[in-house]
Amino acid sequence: MDKPLSKQTALITGGATGIGRAFAEALLEADIGRVVIASRRHGVLANAADEMNAKYGGRVSTYIFDIRNQYQTEDLVRETIEEFGAVDILINNSGLAVPETVTEITNEGWDRVMETNLRGAMWLTQLVLPKMLEQNFGDIVNVSSQAGKNGYADVPSYCASKFGLLGFAESVRDDMRKRGANIRVFNFCPGLVDVESPSDQPPRPGSIHVRNMGRTLVYALSLDRNVNLEDINIYAR
Ligand SMILES: NC(=O)c1ccc[n+]([C@@H]2O[C@H](COP(=O)([O-])OP(=O)(O)OC[C@H]3O[C@@H](n4cnc5c(N)ncnc54)[C@H](OP(=O)(O)O)[C@@H]3O)[C@@H](O)[C@H]2O)c1
């Protein structure tokens, strides 16, 4: 079963900035029907939506929520489905790092990282799945990291959250396979991504330009529905 991208709705957490914004623009360029960008900062969301709506013709909506708040996360998904019919593509992109070595980790830092990067993605996945299963169509895209594959001394909580996200995603993928559901799970594991250099400039040394994230997303989504694309390791050579 397929659904044209022009009839699909994508929900992108952290979609106003950096990688999330590049995902939003790439999907709009590929003619997606609707993009909902959701995060905490109203002004940042509104500016991004205004810019993209001017450029791509009014297909971007915003939603203010804190991924650490379960009620706000539930409202986000419920209201998006009520307004646009479904979340066809969920992009779990919101994330942050708290640089604390293992001997420095505080409960506050640990909770911030794990709740934002891992528990929030788990909630959102749980919340979008019933509708995806009902319509037997959906894509879940998780933004992990090379820090989900390798440990780095300065960000152990970040690494734990990004490794954890991959484990959670593999379990969801296995569950969808066992149910025979037409729901794919993609994981991005980027190295350093330059989210600031203009698109006509080379990226910072050691980084890839963020536009490559958008291109890769659209490519991955365009694959046949029965194709499993394992973790997308993408980094500068
Ligand atoms: N850039 C890189 O080199 C790189 C490499 C590997 C992986 N990643 C991953 O890529 C993702 C995007 O990162 P980025 O580089 O594009 O950085 P970014 O621009 O800082 O994006 C992070 C986004 O997360 C949102 N966010 C943070 N806390 C949130 C919360 N409590 N509730 C809802 N949204 C929240 C932020 O929006 P608000 O502040 O408005 O809430 C922001 O839009 C992250 O998961 C990051 O770990 C980045």
Report on this structure.
The chain has 237 residues and is of the alpha/beta class. The protein has one domain: NAD(P)-binding Rossmann-like Domain (Rossmann fold, 3-Layer(aba) Sandwich). It has helices spanning 18-29, 42-56, 70-84, 107-135, 156-179, 211-222; strands at 9-13, 34-39, 60-64, 89-92, 138-143, 183-190, 193-194, 208-209, 232-234. The strands form two sheets. A seven-stranded parallel β-sheet has the order 3-2-1-4-5-6-9, with helices on both faces. A two-stranded parallel sheet has the order 7-8. Helix 2 links the parallel strand 2 and strand 3 (60-64). Helix 1 (18-29) crosses helix 6 (211-222), helix 3 (70-84) runs parallel beside helix 4 and helix 4 (107-135) runs parallel beside helix 5 (156-179). The protein is globular, with a radius of gyration of 17 Å. It starts with 8 loop residues before the first strand and ends with a strand. 41% of the residues are buried. The mean pLDDT is 97. NADP nicotinamide-adenine-dinucleotide phosphate is lined by residues 13-14, 16-20, 39-41, 44, 66-68, 93-96, 116, 143, 145, 190, 192-193, 195.
Brief description of this entry?
The chain has 237 residues and is α/β, with parallel strands linked by helices.
What descriptive keywords fit this protein?
two-stranded parallel sheet, Rossmann fold, alpha/beta, 45% helix, binds NADP nicotinamide-adenine-dinucleotide phosphate, seven-stranded parallel beta sheet, 237 residues, single chain
